[in-house]
């Protein structure tokens, strides 16, 4: 069959890989000039399979009201006349109920573990160069109350297959000595030894080359999908400035842009852009970056050395964080990146040359319950692979596998109903 994948970010490319291996003729359509230019471009770099906690957690709504009054807070909301925003927020509040939150952890861990296995297979079968390194992850807590909550979360995640350790301040510094140079206290942490890091953008570039050279996948860059054509009871083509592209099946993997294609054909997707920021700073031979991937739980900031995670080596340090619900504008707000720089200097003053940091912002396509939307849409021939939120690098390999299995009519390795569009009726 001929399958057209709309979007060449992490979600679209990994899905294309699975489809091409199944023997389908695959065409990938992307409005950007190359792969991975959207939300995949400069994300946090963490492959965090055991820490996929939904953003809508119990208590986050109460914190959100306080954060709204603080311009440097991890989450920022700009109220506006946007029905998408208010519907998403109401569903987010409902998704923060403990029962929904705990079910979300179960479903996201199952998907993350599948994705980890798929990536292992991909790295075995293909030549993929993306600075992959299994280095472990340490979540650092600076508040005693949040550390107590973390104990409960670790116990819950352990019931679903996670292997994590609770560590005190001394053990945190033993695991990652670079923490000793920070200016803020550490109450304790959670260490997961088998997590990894990598460069998502380089992964997209490397996978694109593999798809072209080994599987003959056709790419159309700089060509935007302007509309989906539906006739005879199914999706028949996608409209572009160069005309129609016809196929037997279409996979919508274009991140937040999926809304613009879905809404005109009556498809309501529970998506909203969560704007995030990152810094990429050069690591000099004299710097001392953390070798372990770090998450600062209080500030909601992640740190990952993409290369140069040893003394005497040059490389790049990636810092990412923040959630801004401010609409669809993707401009870089200096106050937000200044906050990120200040936090990085306070946490790891000797990790990188922070004065030469490259700032980036991206729109993460998120659902209220943090689960992606996968599978058949209400329109035959149109498949959904969207809503990866802040976990695109972690779960994309698994979501691509599930969508390809569903198109082929195969039994999937995990249940897909939790990620289906029609399963969202009670939360959106």
UniProtKB/TrEMBL annotation:
GO cellular component: cytoplasm; plasma membrane
Gene Ontology biological-process annotations: D-alanine catabolic process
Domain of life: Bacteria
MF GO annotations: D-amino-acid dehydrogenase activity
Ranges of residues in domain FAD dependent oxidoreductase: 2-406
Keyword terms, alphabetized: Oxidoreductase
Protein family per UniProt: Belongs to the DadA oxidoreductase family.
Protein name per the record: D-amino acid dehydrogenase
